[in-house]
Structure formats: structure tokens, C-alpha cells
Write a structure and sequence with these properties.
The protein is an alpha/beta fold and 290 residues long. The protein contains eight helices and 17 strands. It is 22% helix and 26% strand. A hairpin with a 2-residue loop joins β12 and β13 (195-200).
């Protein structure tokens, strides 16, 4: 199968082509017959602007998949749905935990960056107005699922022998805030002639844990590339050294097109470690044909 994967929402953008940047993440995945939107970013007006620059009308999106329930991946939904005119409900795949009320214990620069005024509040999924609920159709998935031919959701990452990125995540259960293991973390995999391409929203399950599940589902198949957010902005240099060693020894150094929560420090580290032929940032407007 062949796919075109375009970053349509992200922290950095190809502004010379008219794209706008904003904190969040979303990708277009185009096959021969279908167009999939993976996340909606934070602000619907910016998502719609970038879709217009890319020549994509909201009605042309066949399926929407959410990587997880955090605001910077989901809150563009309402504005996006409002601008669809199709009478056919938009199918949305997501994990059931994505709809739970979420928050995070932000520290240091993160609390200043995100400008959160309260420690406890919902930084999770957007509320969908009643008048829009009839034009969306949720399908909840826990397990791996083929979304369209050649494009799969990995489902829950339950085996986490390596570090994940959930230490500061919170979820409300029975009226109390508890640690959120972000089981709703759903990455996508394109099965192509050249190998597997992993597309991550934030990869809260941890990149190495996610790659381990990919390897188990497609044993012996090459992982050709990793695209998207990997939440390695919280990694120290020793962590990045370890991850790079595993990428080299176990996965034969897949190409890395990282963005969003991967962190500039991480992208720079891999650029220096593997070279720009292997590692480069994925800006809004950048695309790959795989």
C-alpha cells in the first residue's frame, strides 16, 4: 500500500507556504481511496486554515482517529465538525478512556508554557454540543484494528517494560484524581512495501514500548520510519542515549520525523546522532509518501 502522510497541525510550520503553527498535533493520511484525519489539534480555526492551504475540504475526510483524549489533540473537533456539510455522520475511532476527564501535574517551564491557571481542571476531550452529536459516530477501540486497508490502530499498549510518559498525567475516577496511565494512547501503523511506518500523536505509552508492540504484531517486518510526537521532551541525555542505542541495535535505525512533544532537544540529539538523512523535524506542511 502507498500513503501520503502530511503534518496538518503542529508546533512549527512551513509559514512561507501559508501554514500556521500552534501547540498540538494532527496528521492527514491519504490512501488511494480514503482520507484519514489523525487528531484535530487544539484550535479548530487553525486546523481549518491548514486544511485549506493543503487543498482539503472538511467533507473530504472519511474517518477521524484520535490518538488520545488530551486537549491539544482533540479540541479542534467542534469547529471542524461545524464546517462539514455532509449528512453522513463522521466516523470517529477512539479509545473509551479518551472521553474521561483529564489533567496533569505540570511543573517548571511546562506550567508557564501551557499557562494553566489551576492545578486541577479538565485538559481532556472537548465537550460536543448536543446539536453536533448526531453528525458524528463514535466507535470505541481497545484492541488493534485495521482502519482502512494497510492502516492499523495499535490499540492499547499494555506491556510497558520500558519507561512511559505518564508520570504527571491525571485522570478523574469516581470523583477523585488518580494517575492516568493514558491507556487511550493509540498510535497508527502504515503497512507499506518498504516496511512499517509508525505514526504517533504523543506516544504516552513510550516509544520503545510502542515499537515493541509493533514488532510483536508484525514479526520480522522492518520498521522503516517513526513520525510524530513521542513525548521525549522530558528525557534526559542519558535516556536519549539509551533510546538511540535500542533504535540502532534492535530496530536498525528507522527514519525519524519527529515533532510536537518530542522536544527540540530530542530532535537535535537524533540529528547529531544519526544524521539529517535519518532524523529531521516534521513541520506543518511537511509530507511523506510511503
Amino acid at each position: 500500500m502507498r500513503f501520503k502522510i502530511t503534518n496538518i497541525y503542529g508546533n512549527t510550520a512551513l509559514t512561507d507556504k501559508g501554514y500556521k503553527a500552534d501547540y498540538g498535533n494532527a496528521f492527514l493520511i491519504e490512501s488511494k481511496d480514503k482520507i484519514i484525519l489523525f487528531d484535530t489539534g487544539w484550535k479548530g480555526d487553525i486546523l481549518l486554515h491548514n486544511l485549506k492551504i493543503a487543498g482539503i475540504e472538511p467533507d473530504s475526510i472519511d474517518i477521524l482517529v484520535f490518538s488520545h483524549g488530551h486537549f491539544d489533540h482533540t479540541r479542534g473537533l467542534e469547529e471542524f465538525v461545524k464546517n462539514r456539510t455532509s449528512s453522513k455522520p463522521l466516523k470517529i475511532f477512539l479509545h473509551p478512556d479518551a472521553l474521561k476527564e483529564k489533567n496533569a501535574k505540570f511543573i517548571g517551564k511546562l506550567i508557564l508554557f501551557l499557562k494553566l491557571k489551576e492545578r486541577f481542571g479538565n485538559v481532556g476531550f472537548t465537550d460536543i454540543p448536543d446539536n453536533l452529536k448526531e453528525i458524528v459516530s463514535f466507535e470505541f477501540i481497545n484492541n488493534p484494528k485495521e482502519i482502512i486497508p494497510g492502516l492499523f490502530s495499535l490499540g492499547e499498549i499494555t506491556e510497558r517494560d520500558e519507561k512511559d510518559a505518564t508520570l504527571f498525567m491525571l485522570q478523574k475516577q469516581n470523583g477523585r484524581w488518580v494517575q492516568d496511565k493514558v491507556m487511550d494512547d493509540l498510535s497508527l501503523v502504515c503497512d507499506t512495501d518498504n516496511g512499517l511506518v509508525l505514526i504517533c500523536g504523543c506516544c504516552h505509552a513510550g516509544l520503545l514500548n510502542t515499537l515493541n508492540k509493533v514488532e510483536k504484531k508484525w514479526p520480522g517486518k522492518k520498521i522503516d520510519a517513526v513520525i510524530g510526537g513521542t513525548h521525549m521532551m522530558i528525557c534526559k541525555k542519558k535516556d536519549l542515549e539509551y533510546i538511540s542505542q535500542v533504535l540502532s541495535d534492535k530496530y536498525k535505525i528507522p527514519k525519524l520525523y519527529l515533532n510536537h512533544c518530542s522536544g527540540e532537544n530530542t530532535i537535535s540529539f537524533f540529528d547529531q546522532k544519526f544524521g539529517k538523512e535519518i532524523s529531521r523535524p516534521m513541520h506543518v506542511g511537511d509530507f511523506l509518501e510511503v
